[in-house]
């Protein structure tokens, strides 16, 4: 695969995701600081490693596999996927984020294993036949309409394809700040686009989309590691005590899903009102 950035976004599609600009505007503006703010220093590096560990557990055999990554951002997970042997098509709505990702890969041995395309999750015009995995790490909770995104992806998946995504989980030690974010759309430190969901709600979204959850994995991280670095020991203990036995009680939860049936264009499977 070669590098390519396609300007494929149709900015006029915006019916299901009316707050699209809000969804990714922050990333456009802060792409260059994204990794620096979240994944540097002892606490940030630990948080990054924990997430990659979750990926490794859920996708143990990536050698030769074909992966579509959605919301690849600065290529943090993309790098892990390529290093583990996968061919990755890395997509993101933000060209600024993808520019940072491209730099990460230039002149690495993995350069040839990655292709880039600027695409919204709602506009994926990619034929997923032959794809083993779709990965969306830290993306769905940032969308104003995650259920529509799940429906859209599920419709394109083959029964063999697995869709791994993470979401911000409400039922965790971060519950108080998660509630503040859900109510105010702001964290203590900055404006955020994210929302926090209960696992039950995510399961309902999956059911609507015709997806079955095959496995859950949770992990802890230090929110705002530059300011809250001193909380690292607490999160390390929580990680050890909670994450294995109670994955759905972690602030970040990953689900691996597969498609079990088709849904119609409205994502309506007749499960009744949500
Ligand atoms: C929190 S970042 C996660 C980046 C990367 N996956 C990671 O874990 O480091 C969220 C990413 O989702 C992207 N994004 C937001 N809305 C999107 C959409 N509608 N379609 C595709 N990507 C989107 C943003 O541009 C941003 O790069």
SSE blueprint and pairings:
Layout: H1 20-30, H2 34-38, H3 41-58, E1 66-70, H4 76-83, E2 87-92, H5 95-105, E3 114-118, E4 133-136, H6 146-156, E5 162-168, H7 175-184, H8 199-209, E6 211-219, H9 232-242, E7 252-259
Helix pairs in contact: 6-8
The structure holds S-adenosylmethionine.
Structural class: alpha/beta
Rg, alpha carbons: 18 Å
What is the share of helical residues?
25-40%
The CATH homologous superfamily name equals Vaccinia Virus protein VP39
Apparent shape: globular
CATH structural fold name? Rossmann fold
Indicate how many domains the architecture comprises. 1
| Tally of alpha and pi helices | 9
Q: How many strand units?
A: 7
Architecture, according to CATH? 3-Layer(aba) Sandwich
Give the termini separation.
41 Å
CATH class, anyone? Alpha Beta
Mean pLDDT: 88
List keywords for this structure.
Rossmann fold, seven-stranded mixed beta sheet, binds S-adenosylmethionine, alpha/beta, 274 residues
Describe the overall structure.
This protein has helices spanning 20-30, 34-38, 41-58, 76-83, 95-105, 146-156, 175-184, 199-209, 232-242, and strands at residues 66-70, 87-92, 114-118, 133-136, 162-168, 211-219, 252-259. The radius of gyration is 18 Å and the shape is globular. With 274 residues, it is an alpha/beta fold. Residues 1-19 and 270-274 have low confidence and may be disordered. The relative contact order is 0.16. The protein is 35% helix and 16% strand. It has a single domain (20-259), classed as 3-Layer(aba) Sandwich (Rossmann fold), CATH 3.40.50.150. It contains nine helices and seven strands. A seven-stranded mixed beta sheet has the order 3-2-1-4-5-7-6, sandwiched between helices. α6 packs across α8 (199-209). The structure holds S-adenosylmethionine. S-adenosylmethionine is lined by residues 20, 23-24, 27, 70-73, 76-77, 92-94, 97, 120-122, 137-139, 142-143.
């Amino acid at each position: 695969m070669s590098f390519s950035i396609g300007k494929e976004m149709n900015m006029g599609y915006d019916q299901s995701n009316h707050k699209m600009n809000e969804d990714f505007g922050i990333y456009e503006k802060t792409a260059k600081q994204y990794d620096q703010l979240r994944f540097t220093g002892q606490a940030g590096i630990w948080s990054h490693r924990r997430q990659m560990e979750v990926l490794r557990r859920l996708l143990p055999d990536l050698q030769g596999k074909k992966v579509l990554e959605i919301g690849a951002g600065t290529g943090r997970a993309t790098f892990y996927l390529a290093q583990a042997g996968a061919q990755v098509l890395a997509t993101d709505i933000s060209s600024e984020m993808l520019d940072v990702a491209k730099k990460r890969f230039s002149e690495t041995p993995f350069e040839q294993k990655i292709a880039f395309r600027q695409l919204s999750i709602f506009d994926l015009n990619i034929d997923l036949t032959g794809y083993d995995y779709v990965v969306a790490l830290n993306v769905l909770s940032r969308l104003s309409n995650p259920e529509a995104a799940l429906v859209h992806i599920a419709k394109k998946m083959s029964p063999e394809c697995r869709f791994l995504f993470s979401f911000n989980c409400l039922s965790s030690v971060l519950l108080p700040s998660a509630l503040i974010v859900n109510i105010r759309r702001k964290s203590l430190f900055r404006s955020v686009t994210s929302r926090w969901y209960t696992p039950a709600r995510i399961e309902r979204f999956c059911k609507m989309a015709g997806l079955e959850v095959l496995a859950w994995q949770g992990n802890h991280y230090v929110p705002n590691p530059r300011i809250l670095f001193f909380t690292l020991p607490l999160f390390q203990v929580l990680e050890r005590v909670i994450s294995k036995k109670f994955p759905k009680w972690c602030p970040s939860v990953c689900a691996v899903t597969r498609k079990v049936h088709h849904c119609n264009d409205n994502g309506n499977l007749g499960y009744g009102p949500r």
